[in-house]
Amino acid sequence: MSAPKILVVGAGINGLVAANYLRRAGCDVTMIERAERIGGACVSETVNVNGVTQPYALGASVLGLMQNFVFAETGLADRLETFVPNHAKFVFFPGDDEPTWIHRDPAMLDKELADKWGERGEVEAFRADEATVVRFLQEGYRSAVPPSINDANAAIGETLTRLFISGSARELMDHYFTSERSKMYMAMTVTESGPVSLDDPYSAFTLPMMDSGSIFDGYYGFIKGGIWRITTELGRINDELGVDLHLSSSVVGVDTDNGRVIWEQGGTEKSAEFDYLVLGTDPLTASRLVGDSEQLAGTEKQRFRGSSGKLNVMFDKPIRWKHGSGHEHSDSAFRFIFSVNDIEEYEAATLKVLDTENDYVPGYAQVYCEGAAMRHLCHDEPFDRLAVFFKNLSLSSRGADLTHVEQQVKETVLARIENPEDCVWTRLLMPKDLQELFLFPGGNLDHTILTGGQTFFDRNYADDPSTGFYRYGSLEKVYVCGSGTYPCGSIAGTPGYMCSQQLLRAASQ
Ligand SMILES: Cc1cc2nc3c(=O)[nH]c(=O)nc-3n(C[C@H](O)[C@H](O)[C@H](O)COP(=O)(O)OP(=O)(O)OC[C@H]3O[C@@H](n4cnc5c(N)ncnc54)[C@H](O)[C@@H]3O)c2cc1C
After folding, report:
1. Over the chain, what is the mean pLDDT?
2. For residue 455, what pLDDT band results from cuts at 50, 70 and 90?
3. 489 within some domain
4. Per the structure, how many domains does the chain have?
5. Residue 98 exposed, middle or buried by CB count within 10 Å (0-12, 13-18, 19+)
6. CATH number for the domain including 235?
7. pLDDT value at residue 456
8. Residue 22 belongs to what domain range?
9. Residue 205 domain-assigned?
10. What pLDDT score was predicted for residue 354?
11. Which residues form the pocket of ligand 1, taking CB atoms under 6 Å from any ligand atom?
């Protein structure tokens, strides 16, 4: 039998990972990408400041949710150098003179949170229980079997399943922690993709899921040069393997009955046949291309709102932080700056952007020291750079029109730096920019809000998920694996990997 013909739409991380595995398995793979370059939301941009050019990460900045087997098996591990800061993270709350240190060692963390935040709960037990849930999720990733609640109950027990999977983040926090600050810090990831209430069912699940990367044991780090090298290298590897790529090519129609795709390239309509179609796009595009009117209406009803933005920052001299330590990784440690003091204020700020015209309601900012990480990787660059990922933003305006928001966030970060006068350039991206730049529905980083009704086993488009989780509707030859599918977005490629394995199993039957 001849090799199955696979057509992959979308050359973001998930389309690229799926194409890599399918090609390595002997399939005949063609990729069609709307943009003029590959990468989706994992791409670079360049800026020229005073005649000097510097690349920076336009979308994603840090790597952590990828599985180490994906990094190795795709061929990326042979070509890319990584760096993970091993210094404690620094957390600042309003009015703090000194940061709280988030140590890796649970016993040291326990002591620090008790001393600084008056924490009297079970920090070590939380970390140990979360690790059990993470192992369960990782086993599912490897075997490409999205879990069910029954699987979770059997593997980790009903108590951990209720606490970490089906329950709310607030219940999970109240179970292990006593201090408001511990709860806010630990629950920060719940609202990372969008305005999710800590009381939403299944909101607890985002915590173990965001820690379930195995590439750096649940931690986050950097790629020498920049994270976009993940997608550019993957494109190169795929090309060497024989994947046929068409750029600046928009798929405009799919004839699912006859296995044919129609796309436009430079004003010319083209078509190609497929045995299997893999949609590595956002879910709305997937539904518009292959869904019937009921399926499309169902997808349109999903919650897609994003409320996170990004500020890219350049300094023309190395940044000198006011707080740190003598440890060599202190300059690259992750920094978290909260603008709210208690969990009710946090929750109110998260949800306020939904029903008011506020462009910006300060919540927290996560600061990634990309320039310092490049120095540790011996990668010389003309500028020191930061990526500031922050909340809570409306969907109504573009970053270029909101200089006051840009200024406010910049001041929050510069207040922690000894040499703010060396900051020479910033660029703000709002959810509206993410919607327009990357086609993210509602400007959401994960293509969809990770919340009740669209989390865990719900994040699929199949009529019968138990037999084909990544299939679209009842279509036997159409699969979907963009970030809107399980487990979630991020530069992980887990949906792309899991989808490719399910497709290969189905094709071999
Ligand atoms: C500002 C920002 C910061 C982020 N930070 C991080 C981070 O630090 N770490 C992290 O892990 N993740 C981060 N993320 C999330 C991460 O970037 C995304 O979840 C991930 O890149 C999505 O990958 P994907 O392959 O599923 O989809 P996409 O990257 O969205 O790729 C889909 C591709 O499909 C193409 N396409 C769509 N329609 C068509 C069509 N009709 N025909 C042909 N092609 C089509 C698109 O052009 C696109 O290239 C961030 C995202 C943003 C925007």
Report:
1. 96
2. confident
3. yes
4. 1
5. exposed
6. 3.50.50.60
7. 83
8. 5-42+63-79+224-303+448-508
9. no
10. 82
11. 9-15, 32-35, 40-42, 59-62, 65, 250-251, 280-282, 285, 310, 429, 434, 438-439, 445-446, 482-483, 489-491
